[in-house]
Amino acid sequence: MKELSVVDLKLAFEQDIKMALYTLDRYNIEANLVLVACDDYDIDKAHLMESVRQSDIIKKVNEHYIAVLFTFVDHVGARCALEKLLNIYAEYRLKGSLIILRKGESIDDVCNRLLEANHIIHADPAKNMFCEFDYALAE
Which residues lie across from 66 on neighbouring strands? Predict the structure, then answer.
């Protein structure tokens, strides 16, 4: 697993997360944030990035990660979209983490939870996807 920091995520997504949190607080429109680890694979990140809906925001965080902010979709739809992303290059067993934005949290809280989810999925070599909602149900 390549290291990633809150600063990396904020540089790529700070304004987008800020707007999603505002929309969630103000209009109760759910948003989900996904991190896909592309670690050492020579994959076409542009092709991967083109495979999401136009209404979603996808950005390259650094050479090893891309992140997607799924808007106007619940966590079930975001989970399906993450599965689709991971299956584009199934032979590389990409790892993805999905978190649900929560009302009243800060941008730092969101970034820290996404980093924690990334550590959880990398700790289990048998799994390729972490969905915060599924994890909360199992506890």
Answer: 36, 60
The answer to whether 115 touches 7, Cβ cutoff 8 Å, is no
Residue among 21, 42, 8 nearest 103 (CA): 21
Amino acid at 6: V
Q: With beta carbons less than 8 A apart as the criterion, state whether 61 and 34 touch.
A: no
pTM: 0.88
Do 97 and 83 touch, CB atoms closer than 8 A?
Answer: no
What element of type H or E holds 115? helix 107-123
pLDDT (tens place) for every residue of the chain, 139 residues total: 678 999 999 999 999 999 999 999 999 999 999 999 886 666 777 778 887 877 789 898 988 899 999 988 899 999 999 999 899 888 888 999 999 999 999 999 999 999 999 999 999 999 999 998 887 655 5
Tokens 């505002």 — which residue?
Answer: 22
